[in-house]
Design a protein that fits this description.
This protein is α/β, with parallel strands linked by helices. It has one domain: Vaccinia Virus protein VP39 (Rossmann fold, 3-Layer(aba) Sandwich). It contains 8 helices and 8 strands, in the order ααββααββαβαββααβ. The chain has an 8-stranded mixed β-sheet.
Amino acid sequence: MPSKALTQYLSHYRGTDDPHLSSFKLIKKKYSVERVLYPGSWIHLTPSLIFPYVVYVDSLPKIDSMLSDPELLEYIGNNSEIFGESIIKVHQIDYREGVNKEKESFDLLISLSSGFVSQYCGSYLKKGGLLFVNNEHYDAIKAFVDENFKPIGVFSSKGKLIQKENWIEEYFLTKNDESITSEMVSENSKRSPSKAKYKLKNKAPFYLFIRT
């Protein structure tokens, strides 16, 4: 019987069938990402199937032991697409209180349904580094109104990166055809996503930004 950690990982993220995986592969191929920071990761070790150095940060009790589970690590190792050594670092802390890592030292910051990761951890990204983010906790639109980030694409449900002339207008307009503003993000953040005051006209599974 698989360990609890491996069972949870496969149940929630589906391992090699993880819907994030195709996007991670494309990012690795197109942008040559090596060092990744993933605040609010929980047990989502999928990035370590693709990227050689990943730092996972979560405040959940015993997250360090969960992410060092031998069976889970064996699964990741057996299915990894990395040539050479894969490094996994785990920090059991609240990312909002700071991460003990050098500023501007990561190529990719992952923000998936864990609050405003872009705001608390954006400074750890290199200039020209990438932010891979969803909008379940409004972090995509928060990054959109942040002058430190520039949107460069969105991902389709099949992991295809969409980069075209009018995509910003398509993906960062409200249903009333208004461009998202800081005030709108602030209003939304007081509500659950299902009750957002300003909902996007078109929603993408994932968004990609570059740190300016």
